[in-house]
Structure formats: structure tokens, C-alpha cells
Amino acid sequence: MSRENGKPLSELYDASVEAYDKLYMEIQTKKYMLIKSLFKPKSILDIGIGTGYVCRTGDQYIVGIDISFKSLEKARDRCEYADLVLASAEEIPIKGIFDLVLIISSIHHFKDPCRVADSVSRLGRNIAISVMKRYNGLDSIEKCLMNLGFRKMDLWDDILYVR
User: Fold this and answer.
1) What pLDDT is attached to residue 1?
2) I want to staple 98 with a disulfide (CB 3.0 to 4.6 A). Which of 45, 79, 84, 104 is the partner?
3) Contacts of 88 (CB under 8 A, 6+ apart)
4) For helices 17-39 and 69-78, angle between their N-to-C axes, nearest 10 degrees
């Protein structure tokens, strides 16, 4: 699991659940709505589901993975019908095929973003990965995603890579 500022990433997310919702709920919900309109999925695997914004945008079958227990507790309130899993994106304990696999604004936290992007390809008919434009490592992630056959689109404060 990745670390930032010497702390496990899960602890940082646990500590910031309430603030994250206040700061990002509106824009993240818009991202989910736009992406879902592109693919019209019946089933979604959301890697880094956080507090469950994806559940505010429809009634698809959703499996959500996150490393933050507190985020998943909050997601449970929004995602009554979803299966939520406490796990790392680097070790996804899921099998099956989803109409859409999402990684929204979180891939930059992974130890090996390219490996994760490649491994989730087996889980979805369509893949959507957003990366913050202001992320310093955007070039290396973009190179990897383009080599994996993704195409890119502008998505407000992110770049959206789809396949």
C-alpha cells in the first residue's frame, strides 16, 4: 500500500473523509455522471470508490474497492445496493467482467499505476481512468496508458483515459 508523508495512505484517507466530501463531492459526481453517460453500464467496478459518489448517479450494480475503512463506512450510506470491499488496488480480490471499470482521481496514489491499469483491463469491457492534470507524474502515467491502448479526453481538472 502506498504511503504519503510517512503515513499509510489508508490512514490519510480515514482522517480526511469529511473534508473530502465537502471539497470534492460536486465535481466528482459530475465526473461519474459524464463517464457513465458515455458507456451506459449495467455493472461497475469502482477502484478507489471512496465515499461512494458513483452511487449518487444511478442504480447500476456496483462493486467498490477502497483502502479506507472510514470511506467505505460512508459509502455504505450512499451505496445500499453495492458490494464494498476493503482492499488495495494493487491486490484486487475480484474476478469477473464488469461493463465498466473506474479509477477516478486516485491512480496517482498507487505504487505502480501502470501495473494496476494493465491488471484491471481483464476485469472490464470498458475502462475509464482519470488523472489529475496537476499531478507531477502525469507524463509517465499517460505514456503507460497510451501504450495500453487508451485514448484521452479532457475532463475538467482531470484527463480521462478510456478504453
Assistant:
1) 47
2) 45
3) 1, 67
4) 60
At 10, give phi and psi (nearest 5°). Answer: -60, -40
The CATH number corresponding to 3-162 among 3.40.50.1820, 3.40.190.10, 3.40.50.150, 3.30.230.10 equals: 3.40.50.150
pLDDT (tens digit per residue) in 75-120: 999 998 899 999 999 999 998 999 999 999 999 989 999 999 999 9
User: What residues are paired with 158 via a beta bridge?
Assistant: 132, 155
CA 63 to chain centre: 11
E-strand ranges in 30-163 read: 43-47, 61-66, 83-86, 98-104, 124-132, 151-155, 158-162
Under 8 Å between Cβ of 78 and 21: no
Give the residue extent of every domain in the chain.
3-162
- The alpha carbon of 117 is separated from its chain's Cα centroid by a whole number of angstroms, namely 11
pLDDT, mean over the chain: 92
d(CA 87, CA 65) in angstroms, rounded, equals 6
